[in-house]
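Slide 14.
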Amino acid sequence: MAKPCVHIINGPNLNTLGHREPAIYGTTTLAQIEGWCREAAAGPIEFRQSNYEGQIIEWLHQARGVADGVIINPAGLSFTSVAILDALKIYGGPVIELHISNIHARDPIYHKSLMSPVATAVIAGLGARGYVTALRSMYELLEPTA
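Slide 15: predicted structure.
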């Protein structure tokens, strides 16, 4: 059996991790997070970041039929992008929505993610290490059941 392929897609401003609001997001960079994910990977991963909604949508379309699962941190687009929501529906495989901070403990504008209703699972508030937790959880979701 082939090793599962997971796509990890990151949204706007996550390229500034390590510098952006360290009290909320910590000092870990996205490159460090990618390194952790590559170390924890049990198969091929695609790790991507874009500040552009359309690029994220294209990556979700490309994941269809290629990625066994998608982990997405849509960042600020979580609360505004019906287009990414629709792309997640089109993808059709397991999706873990990921947030570094606990979005429910922040300002009310961050409490309602449009993505959550179509996500298989949501992880929020574990900090940068939540990515490795999400990756391990995705592998568990992808394990064949007896």
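Speaker note: The chain has one domain: 6-142.
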